[in-house]
Each structure stands twice: as C-alpha cells, then as structure tokens.
Amino acid sequence: MSHSLLKRRFIIQVGNRDVRQDIHSFFLELEALLLFPGMGNILFGAVMELISNAEKALLKRAYFQKNNLDIHNPRVYKEGLKNFVEEYQSILASEYPALLKKQNRKITLETDVTGERILIFVRSNIGLLKEEEKRIRTRLRAVEKSGGVHDFYRKFADDSESKGLGLAMVVFFLIELGFESKNFRIYEENGETIARLDLPLIEQYRTIRDGKRAAARLRANKTRKGNITTTTSAPLNSQDGPLALK
C-alpha cells in the first residue's frame, strides 16, 4: 500500500465558519500536489455539501429534542421536519449550535491521500434515522435516473430538507472530476453517520467497497463449500447496486 502523501483532520462545530478557509486551502494544496487543475474547488464544494448535510442532521436532532418531539414517530417526524425546514435560518442563528457544542456533537473531516487514491470521511457523532436512510437511498437513486443537476431538480426535488439537492450535488461534482457515483457512500457505523469519498487515482486501485464485496463473496463461497459450518453474516452490500449504502 502506498504511503500517505497528504493527511489532515478537521473538527467542525455547527455554525462555526472559521475552519472553512483552512479546508479550502487544504484542497487547493491537494490540487497542486496531484497536478489536477480544478480539482481543489470541486472537491471543496463536494465536502462542504457533506458538512452542510451533517450540520442539518445535528441541528434537527437538537430541534426535536428541545421541542420534545419524538423523532422516531413517523407522523411527528414529518410535521417536525416541515417546521424545522421553515425555521432553519433562525435555528442556525439561535442557541442550537451552542447546545450541540455543549453535548459534544460535532463533525469531523478526515482526509488521506496516497499515490493510489484520495480517501475522505465526513463523520458526525449521531446515527442515521430510518427516515433519513430511506431518503438518502431515494435521492441517490434519483440521481442515477436524471440527466444532470437541472434535470434532477426539475424531476425529483421536493420541498423538504433543502429540496434534496445536497447529496445529489456531491455525485454531480464527482462525475465532473471523472469519478463515479459508486465512489460515494453514506452509512452508519458505531453510532456515527459517515460519508465516504473513495477516489481512485490509478486504474489498479481497489476501493474499500470493492474489498468488502470481495470478502463477502469469499465468505459465501466458503460457506457453500462446507468449509464454514456456522452461519455467516449477510454481505455488507446486500442490495449490491451502485447505491448500496456501504
């Protein structure tokens, strides 16, 4: 495995814009390192969409908590989400960011670049709700059916949570750089919601997702051959399409 050429970690508190310039500078540094004109601003845009998405998820938790709303009740969630979207700008400017900081709710951006790949994680220390996971799957499937950002907006955007454009824009940004939608994943792990960009720089590179799928196939083959007598877990990508979450 190639050694790291550039590695950085950023902590982002909701509502704090100071760190964004440092993040932008990092991606411009990455562009210069890889001699890839335009990459810095495009990846910065994609990552800021992911950070914004994580901020909204954290603020939504705080909003539901402060207003004593059951976020796991589908009917309450739908009504609370509507109010949250309508009040979002005032929520962002109110006491909610300070409440999240007090609860140690934060977003972490981790980057690691080798000669083979760019690996980016945007983590928030809350899990995914079922409604959020459903929405993510719906939005990413809609991206694949669309003919571009304008077509997506016209056909698939709705009035909830910023019209669903944030995650779609991440995919469109990657495509603009020559990558594919499968290089982007959102999933939950150990109580965190994680967005991952796994971007190959050489043809021979095998992504994390490809490695997990290969391992799952190997386990399944061993089971079929009787080499493993105990029940194995289902493959990590049981939906096994380009939009499977992991």
Describe this protein with a few key phrases.
disordered C terminus; 5-stranded antiparallel β-sheet; alpha+beta; 5 strands; 246 residues; 50% helix; Heat Shock Protein 90; 9 helices
Overview of this protein structure:
This protein is of the alpha+beta class and 246 residues long. The protein contains nine helices and five strands, in the order E-H-H-H-H-H-E-E-H-H-H-E-E-H. It folds into two domains: 198 residues, 2-Layer Sandwich (Heat Shock Protein 90); 41 residues, no CATH class. It has a five-stranded antiparallel β-sheet. The two termini are 22 Å apart.
Strand content: 15-25%
Give the beta-strand count. 5
Relative helix content: 40-55%
* Rg from Cα: 19 Å
Unreliable stretches (pLDDT < 50, length at least 5) are 229-245
Q: Which class best fits the helix and strand makeup?
A: alpha+beta
Largest sheet: 5 strands, antiparallel
Instruction: Compute the number of structural domains.
Output: 2
User: Strands of the largest sheet, in order across it?
Assistant: 1-2-3-5-4
Distance between the termini: 22 Å
Shape: globular
* Oligomeric state as shown: single chain
CATH class of the largest domain: Alpha Beta
Count of individual helical segments: 9
CATH architecture classification name of the largest domain: 2-Layer Sandwich
Give the topology string: H per helix, E per strand: EHHHHHEEHHHEEH
Name of the CATH homologous superfamily of the largest domain: Histidine kinase-like ATPase, C-terminal domain
Task: Describe this structure in a few short sentences.
With 246 residues, the protein is an alpha+beta fold. It contains nine helices and five strands; from the N terminus they run E-H-H-H-H-H-E-E-H-H-H-E-E-H.
